[in-house]
Predict the structure of DUF2975 domain-containing protein.
Amino acid sequence: MNLSKITYLVSRIFFYICAAFTVFIFLFSALSFFENRFNIDMPLITIVENQTSITIPFSKLHIEFINSFGIIALWLSFGFYAFYFYALSEFFKVFTKTKVFTQYSIKKLKLFGSLNLIPPVFILLYFIIDRIQNTPLRMDSEYILPIPHLCIALFVYLYIDLIKKGKRVQDENDLTI
């Protein structure tokens, strides 16, 4: 098995893990809403005051969150990364094909490159909103997160340029034959 297939399979596994975790979070946070709203005792969920704790089955891990609209941000972030890893697997799938220099390859690479620009935009908006509200500046991990995404986007757009040039050379060779 060559390296391109291994990276494709690993990225596909990350997609399935992230997608399963997204479904888990969505399901159990919805159940916690029903428990909180209708006083129905739900398994694996503990609500104390305005704080929900979800116990992850077969482990001692807990996911805790405040019962607010912050859970929507959690849904969106896990949903985004599930889609992100799907796009990553499609990115690596391009390199497992016999014909790499195709319009399909360029389309998949552009999708993955564009997805890498979304976190920096959201963090920039978050930063601007904090500045408008005069929130004290702090250097948390959410401000560091866009840096790897920007680096990945840069490399992906370099790959896109190489694929486009390769496609152009391939098309020219097809015309001369």
The mean pLDDT is 84. The chain has two domains: 1-86, 97-177. The first strand starts at residue 45 and ends at 48.
